[in-house]
Amino acid sequence: MVTSFLRCDHLKFIMKVPLLDLKLQYKTIKEEILKVTQDIFESQYFILGPHVETLEKDIASYCGTKHAVGVSSGSDALIISLMAAGIGDGDFVLTTPYTFFATAGSICRVGAKPIFADIDAKTCNIDPESIRRVIDTLSAREKAGLKGIIPVHLYGQSADMSPVLDAAKAYNLVVIEDAAQAIGAEYEKKRAGSMGDFGCFSFFPSKNLGAFGDGGMVTTDSDEFDHNLKILRNHGAEPKYYHKIAGGNFRLDALQAAIVSVKLKHLDSWTKGRRKNALKYRELIIAAGIGELVILPEERETRHIYNQFVISLTEKRNELRLFLQESGIGTEIYYPVPLHLQECFRDLGYKKGDFPASEYAAEHTLALPVYSELSDDQMEYVVDKISAFYM
Ligand SMILES: *Cc1c(COP(=O)(O)O)cnc(C)c1O
């Protein structure tokens, strides 16, 4: 014991701080999960059914909406919402270029075209000023075809929804909130997913409320949209084997729903842990005197749920990332290529320089580990290493 301790003292000390460690979370809920999955195995009832219905009811109530519809993933939540709103061929949908690919990918998948507006550099969420500017410069054809807007609540903080909703009202746009990273986030006391016509959630394992596989949910207050969503997720059948519309298989399965239901009971305590860790990082970074190099994320809303804690480095982001990796610290770049510069969107006609805030973020941001089980020691180690790199 003593010799190994001494050896450590001589070698470079490396503490492991992964970007996310779901095994720690699993340990705390293992018994509950094994029980409920066992029950489902015994019942051999796997597709939709009572576990999905229970989760739908609970998510609707958690988000403050009338309905919630379980679907196969967050990406499918976006696709099926666009379909339920009747958006498709020849239509245009406004969104941000600084988001996970699925936000804009879903628009293409239904045959519509994305139109981008830049982000606010301080929050990395869509900038209402840019929305106004972009709409003003649309051609008559684009203006007539503009049917929807997808604001993204990036990293777990709500977009500035009030001006987004105003613009949507002025141009008669369907609002689809991409809340994949933001379950439980709030904006002016309203929960993410309850402000637009649709709220899209993902249960991808790395989201704050993750399944043991893929899964997603759409929230809505509209009875009509709820009805459309439920039919569309089952091939558009109404009744069975009679199709007025071509939907798809967008169903959520019982196992994932039951697992997510177990986790939902713990979500607020995990969110509390993430918020506490974000605060701790702020204190440590300021105390380390590196505040000029490490720009902290702006917390504009009262309930940022920190799916990611993302800093912006004024210089040497990539070198820092490598140094942290060598020190046993996991980080990630969300996202290295803004969507207007993706090869598959070349036909949209955008070029480098079109969205400077998004392009800057792609080159300067870095996500640090922030999961709720992280220890103070681990966070101190992360900030020590960042300051060692810059000193
Ligand atoms: C994760 C994510 C999605 C897609 O969710 P999946 O469940 O992985 O399909 C969509 N939008 C954003 C912003 C996301 O972070």
Describe the overall structure.
The structure is a single chain. This protein has two domains: 3-10 and 267-389, Aspartate Aminotransferase, domain 1, CATH 3.90.1150.10; 27-264, Type I PLP-dependent aspartate aminotransferase-like (Major domain) (Aspartate Aminotransferase, domain 2, 3-Layer(aba) Sandwich), CATH 3.40.640. The chain is 42% helix and 12% strand. The chain contains 14 helices and twelve strands. The strands form three sheets. The chain has a seven-stranded mixed β-sheet, sandwiched between helices. The protein has a three-stranded antiparallel β-sheet with strand order 10-11-12. Strand 4, helix 8 (161-170) and strand 5 (174-178) form a beta-alpha-beta unit. The longest helix is centred in the N-terminal third of the chain and has 22 residues, at 22-43. Pyridoxal-5'-phosphate is lined by residues 73-75, 99-100, 102-103, 152, 178, 180-181, 202, 204, 214, 216.
